[in-house]
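re: the backbone from monday

yeah here it is again, tokenized this time
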């Protein structure tokens, strides 16, 4: 696919996504600076690297078409390596030295939450790409997010268990950030859904083996399924060890590994693993009537042509964040930070790769549970379950 869109093509895409035309007045002002504090190296690089690629790809495209409000975009990316302390330094530099107009990033929950106090004090609109619900609950004035949250993932997984007659389950989770938040949310919603958590184990993202924790789960009478909450290599290790010690009940993962990279890391052990994911990972399997179908299909083809690989949901989060921010700038007719913040909060009916987004002052995510699909690893790919 030719990566260079025509002006008509880009505007048609914007209309199809529920984004108004970019608007290109004469007399262009200074560049619009987009700060992107990401984790492009380290344990979260499989999230941060595709996020960076997408931002670079679409900033380039938008600039080729004349920019936004007649102004070119300047993308400033800093890598934190997944380290919260470094993320704080990066966002301070972006706000104070680079004077960015908006921020898109925060690859992980830990780095996002470390940056939030500075962002709130600096009063810069920020769309996080991280997964935990704590990013936007309670609501923070300048902070938004586009990725499905951990509570939604817990609800989707436990509902699937319940539908299959599973009433007793075990949870194993990473001991910090996303894993800890997901663990806590799972325990909160399990009772309401009707699934009893009868075994609860923790591991570190640095653990090379979790056989001991899984053996405890295996030896717990009555366990009918296991749910793992984590991201990076940890869930792949859990999956391999799971098969190695012969646990036969169903294994569920969270949306933190909703990419083919997880299948690659886990190998044959991934077969049969289920998890909640956006429609992007099964774009070709969505119904023709699904409003996301044209969006995720086009994005997938574009990303494949540019990056030479299938897009992950994390790549999609960066795309959605950029589209929402640029539409807000366009509606605000300026980069005044307060006006852009207000327009982001008014986002309504945006059809993106993660779902249909409608934000409010009380909801800085704007996704419903319908944005999730249950998928299953089959023969090295994700297959739509519902």
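seq for it, each position gets an aa:
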């Amino acid at each position: 696919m030719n990566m260079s869109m025509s002006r008509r093509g880009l505007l048609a895409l914007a209309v199809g996504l529920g984004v108004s035309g970019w608007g290109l007045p004469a007399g262009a002002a200074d560049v619009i600076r987009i700060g992107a504090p990401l984790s492009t190296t380290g344990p979260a690089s499989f999230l941060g690297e595709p996020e960076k690629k997408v931002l670079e790809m679409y900033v380039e495209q938008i600039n080729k078409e004349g920019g936004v409000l007649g102004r070119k975009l300047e993308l400033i990316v800093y890598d934190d390596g997944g380290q919260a302390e470094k993320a704080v330094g990066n966002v301070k530099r972006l706000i104070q030295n680079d004077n960015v107009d908006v921020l898109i990033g925060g690859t992980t929950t830990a780095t996002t939450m470390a940056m939030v106090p500075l962002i709130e004090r600096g009063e810069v609109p920020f769309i996080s790409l991280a997964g935990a619900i704590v990013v936007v609950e309670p609501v923070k004035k300048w902070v938004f997010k586009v990725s499905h949250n951990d509570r939604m993932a817990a609800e989707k997984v436990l509902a699937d268990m319940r539908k299959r007659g599973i009433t007793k389950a075990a949870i194993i989770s990473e001991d910090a950030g996303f894993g800890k938040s997901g663990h806590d949310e799972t325990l909160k919603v399990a009772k309401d859904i009707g699934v009893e958590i009868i075994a609860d184990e923790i591991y570190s993202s640095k653990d090379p083996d979790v056989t001991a924790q899984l053996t405890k789960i295996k030896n717990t009478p009555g366990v009918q399924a296991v749910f793992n909450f984590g991201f990076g290599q940890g869930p792949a290790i859990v999956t391999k060890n799971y098969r190695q010690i012969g646990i036969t009940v169903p294994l569920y993962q969270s949306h933190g590994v909703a990419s083919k990279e997880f299948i690659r890391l886990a190998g044959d052990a991934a077969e049969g693993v289920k998890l909640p994911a956006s429609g992007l990972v099964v774009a070709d399997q969505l119904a023709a009537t699904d409003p996301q179908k044209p969006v995720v299909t086009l994005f997938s083809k574009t990303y494949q042509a540019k990056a030479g690989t299938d897009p992950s949901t994390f790549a999609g989060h960066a795309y959605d964040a950029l589209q929402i921010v640029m539409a807000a700038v366009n509606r605000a007719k300026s980069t005044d930070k307060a006006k852009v913040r207000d327009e982001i909060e008014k986002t309504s009916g945006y059809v993106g790769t993660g779902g249909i987004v409608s934000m409010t002052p009380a909801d800085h995510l704007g996704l419903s549970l319908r944005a999730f699909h249950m998928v299953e690893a089959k023969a090295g790919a994700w297959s739509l379950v519902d």
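Confidence is low (pLDDT under 50) at residues 1-28. Residues 150-277 form a domain with the Rossmann fold fold (CATH 3.40.50.2300).
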